[in-house]
Amino acid sequence: MGDATVRTSERLEEGVPHPVTEETGRGPLRRLRAPRRPRLWFEILLIAVSYWTYSLVRNAVPEQRTQALRNADWIWGVEQQLGIAVEQTVNHAVNSVTWLVVGMNYYYATLHFVVTLGVLVWLYRGHPGRYAATRLVLFATTGVALVGYYLYPLAPPRLMNGGHFIDTVMVHETWGSMASGDLKNMSNQYAAMPSMHIGWSVWCGLTIFALASVPWVRVLGLVYPALTLVVIVATANHFWLDAVGGVLCLGFGYLVAAAWYGRLPYALPRTVAARWRAWSPTRA
Fold it and tell me: Where's the Inositolphosphotransferase Aur1/Ipt1 domain (predicted)?
């Protein structure tokens, strides 16, 4: 009977959400760092305001065309020395297949937002205890990217002088880039480093791979950033090294979240107690 009672107790404990206030202490900082159940209205407002602010700041950065073109030449030269300067070959090869390049143009323009928002919604609904910490990774990644845009203006390959890259949006007259065609005046064309298409897609991929329970969905999580890498290069919107910059920014985002919560977001409990403030070791 004693063994049965212990096993029953263990099963009950597994089904109870564990508030992440296991460390003792009730100070204001401790309460701020404790994951809480996200509120839908607040999250919608926060994401909308944050993206508006990001776009405003990114586009407010001086374009610095001359320096951006000089930096692009330097990046291209470095890649040639490293033997990885194949962006032009990929760009021309994909451009020769109309249906493929048109699909990539729309992929570049839409999935960057659709998939990222989709993962946020999935986290909100299925992993509320991990939502805030994982969202912090995304926000910190994007925030440090703004610093990169300011300090290192960079022209994308399609705008290089004598680079012989093809602007696939212009050639195929598709809507695929805020920096091409009629939309070019709405976006800073010289903010290519780091690539947030890569920063956000790797964030999505790692989150899906770490938390999804269905094997094929986890595989898709890894495929998505890899495919995004091909797209940003094939459409001549980024160099390979822009992607490296995006990954470094993402690493910074994970460091910020780990420092704030004391562990990686995916190691936090899946759920949180509704009344987490009232919890204490004596009431567990």
Answer: 74-254
Q: How crowded is residue 59: how many other Cβ atoms within 10 Å of its Cβ?
A: 16
Rounded Cα–Cα distance for residues 34 and 49 (Å): 23
What does the pLDDT read at residue 92?
96
Whose tokens are 């990046």? That residue is 75
Report which residue type is found at 72. Answer: A
- What is the helix (H) or strand (E) element at residue 118, kind and residue range? helix 98-126
Q: Are 135 and 120 in contact (CB under 8 A)?
A: yes
The C-alpha atoms of residue 252 and residue 247 are separated, in whole angstroms, by 9
> Is residue 35 within 8 Å of residue 20, measured between CB atoms?
yes
pLDDT score at 208:
98
Q: How far apart are CA 156 and CA 42, in angstroms?
A: 36
Residue ranges for the chain with pLDDT beneath 70: 1-38, 40-41, 54-63, 175-187, 273-284
